[in-house]
Prior knowledge:
The protein is α+β, with helices and mostly antiparallel strands. It has seven helices and 23 strands.
Amino acid sequence: MKVRSKFLVATTAVFSLMTVIVPTTSVSGKVASTSSTASVRFWTNARVRQAVSRDFELNSETKRFELRGKPALPGTISGSSWNGGGRVVNTTGKVLFSMGSNYYVCSASVVADSMTNRSIVLTAGHCVYDETNNQFAENWIFIPSWDTQPTTLDSSGLFCDSTEYGCWTAQSLVASNAFAEEPGFTVTATQHDYGFAVMGSGGFSNQQLDLVVNSQPIFSAFVGVDTETWAFGYPSQGKYKGDDLIYCKGLLSFDSRIGVDWSTYKLGCGMTGGSSGGPWMRDFSETGTSVGVGTIFSVTSYGYGSSKSLYGPILNSETAGMLSAAQSTSENLLYQS
Length: 337
């Protein structure tokens, strides 16, 4: 039964910044795209230039989130370029997708799975599913290691041809049915704002994504306050141009503004639009032989315009069920636990 939605109420602007049990019930949809080749060819440099972050702002009159292309943010923002190298550079990537006639950009990460015939990418739910128009994203591609070789968007050529490893296209997408049932980006939606993309062979080598770039472990349970946390992403607004892997590091807390205690995580960080879906990690190795390896426990979901903080959902048993479902589904799936 659908729970009555609770809309986020705040005195400041709020925006989203575009996470194993056996599934009990599911709702299926169409396959994410016609073919991997079609999706790669779809993303010309001209279309990539038009892609904007998928951000939401709270309308002070209606008290509901409304989609906008580019957020108006405070002048002072934080977040540093990650220059430590390691696995996180390869596993964290840029995502491009279309919803209707609009083109969007998010961040995402390759996560560990038990399959050999596919790879799984974790991002924000609003980066795979349009909760307003009730449809999955299309032409969904993942570009790993974007930081290593950002592409110059000239007037000719295909976008993927100039990247480090090439592009991988989603064969299917998995979102939470609880997220999809909401009439917009509500409090309930933020609590289920995680999604998965199932990737087949691709890139220049036509191999599985995780064989080329490796993956990060995922933790689907509550993480306590003051946990040392690293967040990564490709912000593309303000001083950020979307070409540099940016990170924030700090102690974890919780969003106290939305009236639901312990509802979503909070991390002091000034990354802007484009960082949605980027991984939040604990137990992250900054040096040594395992540099760049951490355990993902959330993704960037939203922020408040007046606050230099990011917020993310708590990965849980539903998330674990979605990951399990992603390892077997052959079509788009709204997961219901």
